[in-house]
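Quiz preparation item.
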């Protein structure tokens, strides 16, 4: 089984962009509580939502799901979000 970092990465991306859960959930057309559940690992976003989030941040689906963003340095992070 492939380890995924989706919920952790959602929180990291949001915080690095200085956004609140309200900001992001509004931009994506989601309820804040729903988005909070994604970040906290309580629920999983649908494929459509994951694609929307990846597009919002300009990150590949692969990096959003499989890269442990908390371990990348600033240079690597900038490369990841500019792919």
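Solution:
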């Amino acid at each position: 089984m492939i380890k995924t970092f989706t919920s952790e990465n959602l929180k990291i991306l949001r915080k690095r962009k200085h956004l609140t859960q309200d900001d992001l959930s509004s931009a994506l057309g989601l309820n804040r509580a729903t988005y909070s559940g994604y970040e906290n690992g309580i629920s999983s976003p649908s494929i459509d939502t994951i694609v929307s989030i990846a597009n919002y941040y300009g990150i590949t689906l692969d990096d959003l799901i499989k890269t442990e963003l908390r371990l990348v340095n600033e240079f690597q992070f900038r490369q990841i979000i500019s792919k």
